[in-house]
Amino acid sequence: MKKVLLVIAVIVLTFQLYSQNNSLVMTRHRVLNNKLPDSFNNFKIIHLSDLHSKTFGKDNNKIVNKIIKENPDIIVITGDLIDRRKYNEEKAMLLVEKIKDIAPIYYVTGNHEGWSGKFSSLEKKLNENGVIVLRNESIILRKGHEEISILGVDDPAFSTTGYGEDYKGNKIIEDEIEKIKKAGSFNILLSHRPELFNLYREKDIDLVFSGHAHGGQIIIPFIGGILSPNQGFFPKYYKGLYKESSTTMVVSRGLGNSVFPQRIFNNPEIVCVELVRR
């Protein structure tokens, strides 16, 4: 009897661990801001991050179907489409090819694109599929006579050596944001790193989309995430909405895994943000 119970326990545990890594959830947020132009009221943004070449269902249909149901105005991807350790452009592009006709896609790099040393190949394929790759540049979105700005900065991995990011890399991001932000516009920044929130706030960015933290990998209920890159143990910015002054940051828990292969209480997520003028 004990052996039977042990087998059952192992089966249940295995199923739970598999489910934690593969049961995709949709997380919805409403971001209220009186600076938002009237024409962009109820503007809907799908946010994807940290795929790490993972797939969800045949041809990524689990992701695709969830996005279709939301009927977004745009899709933003905040880096780490691939994983430098198990580099696979085909899996990354499989998702892009399936969602590119749903809504315009805006993309910025993550640290794994920088570390891979192969981003030029991936960038070419993204461009060929109509993805707007923002590399320290901005673009204007217009509706009628009103507009908002989407800014995108390269990950610090492109401007530093080795696997650690230093002041130089962060200073480059600070300088690039200053160059590309649009005075008087509602500025949306795509940047892989949530730990730089204070910098985004100091630059008066209205809305930031980030990833990188993987939801803290393991989330302890009522306590929070355990560990995230560049923030260490019990990270401050690991999932959800953060607001200080006039800046709101949306941090995705991400879709895939990298070094640590298991999520706990931290399902992969798609984020849907609705902009609301208040």
TrEMBL record:
What superkingdom does the record give?
A: Bacteria
Could you tell me which residue ranges the Calcineurin-like phosphoesterase domain spans?
43-215
Name of the protein in its database record = Metallophosphoesterase
Q: Which keywords are on file for this protein? A: Hydrolase, Metal-binding
Species this chain originates from = Clostridium malenominatum
Looking at the Swiss-Prot or TrEMBL record, what is one Pfam family this protein matches? Answer: Metallophos
